[in-house]
Amino acid sequence: MKRYDHISGQNILRMEFLSDGVFAIALTLLVLDIRVPVTEHIAHEKELMIVFGKLTPKLLTYFLSFMTLGIFWTAHSSQFHFIEKSDRNFNWLNLFFLLFVSITPFTTGFLSEYITFKFAVAIYWLNLFLLGLMLFLILNYAVKHDYLKDDLAGKKGIKKAMMRRGIVAQSLYALGALMCFVSTYLSIAMLISIQLYFVLGL
Question: Which residues is 148 bridged to in the sheet?
Answer without folding.
Answer: 83
